[in-house]
């Protein structure tokens, strides 16, 4: 029995037997099989059976850390993200860290690109190697990616650190192992076993849900070599029968899920597994009939906690969610693409410093002057860039007049607009968001409006520069918030100016720096309507039904609509998924993502496919059932 008095799962019993024998183990289970439940049972039993032992549980995200901590707490249990766990292990050894970091930066083909940093033997003398949300290797400051490489180098080269970690944690358990970096797996399964101290490493997860390129994906090579013992968990506790049977057809590892034997499992009703509903919608012709699909489903799309519409990219979501004009600026600016083309050409053929003091227009003219044929084409816009420029000649004129040195340092990416999206309103935002300072400033205004409207006045007063001194100020705050609410069709610049003048949200140094250093981008975004930023805010705060397909992993909802549109992203192809064509890597990547999306559904799963081929339709009828394939 575990500490809660509940009967242990048979898979947990099998895992505990491997641990008793001193063997590393892998618990594999499909989506909805209750792997976290098993993880918590294993932790509870280890803490109960081995009173002197300390247990570490490491996982990929802060959300997963909070999930485990909400289920079990103990002073001998440490739950951390992979990065935090490794940094805690290696950060005390500063002299060794400096040597490893220097080695990663050294050589003809260094593992870490030093950039403009001069690599020397004494470059870290007197400096502390630090882990931050940004990288500045010359000062010894590393970020997420470097921590993984540093940790691997430390455990590879310094045997004593292996003993120290084993002395501290007899058991190290990895949740969602498929997302773990290959270097982390090498630390745990190649370097730690070389320690003379005893200990066990355990892995929980599902290779079919390895949808991140940087993840290890699978550790079957260790299973085949006998260094890891695998236990498979086949029951499904989440999905109705029609959903997990569809998911079974997508798996390639031999795990075939069956209904749970637990009559209290979420997918059970009246002593048997729920059937659920699956539907495959399709349309022919140029029109996108997604709205007709929504109408036919009849769902309450305002129920954001139990209804989700999954698209592959933010770009596909943006026009539907109401901020398509902002996405066009941050992701599809042909002038900035042309600027990058010019900068890349100069880097390849000369020195950027030679053009300091010139405008962008002067640089382009000097490069194009006298060139012909392919040489001229190299410094002219591509066809796609030219299409954009033809539609926005004023933007090219504005860029031509700007200082080239300022413009070439302008980097714009959609992450600066949509990074750090929450899946629910209660989710805690992570550190190190890539959002640009302009968007952050607008969101501060919108956050204040939201707090006031929710009558969360104490939080409102903590975040605003407005100071209450008398009853008249209360009236003025209300009038200010109401006035901003009425400005949804006004340019965002008007809203920013008004909030500043009223003392609600003052323009700070970061705002002024953005305006001076990123003038081209600033001029573009300030004319966008306030309503677009309101829609973006609602989306990123998790108050809409929209989500990207990658970010939904680990979640579950009553109703899920999956839109099968790759949006021009060559890494995925939903046609190949159904037809079995294309390259194996693209097909496998698409299959895993589709598997993750389908298995989010607890009640109803719907899929929408535009213009399917006859072969796609034929496969859809096999997977979903002929009666569940619907034309719109």
From TrEMBL:
Q: Where does ATP bind?
A: 29-36
Q: Name one GO molecular function term.
A: ATP binding
- List cellular component terms (GO): cytosol
Q: Does the keyword Hydrolase apply?
A: yes
Enumerate the InterPro entries for this protein.
DNA_helicase_UvrD/REP (IPR000212), P-loop_NTPase (IPR027417), UvrD-like_ATP-bd (IPR014016)
Which terms under GO biological process does the entry name?
recombinational repair
Keyword list (alphabetical) reads: ATP-binding, Helicase, Hydrolase, Nucleotide-binding
**Keyword flag Hydrolase:** yes
Q: Which Pfam families does UniProt cross-reference here?
A: AAA_19
Question: Per the database entry, which stretches of residues form a coiled coil?
Answer: none
Provide the protein name. ATP-dependent helicase
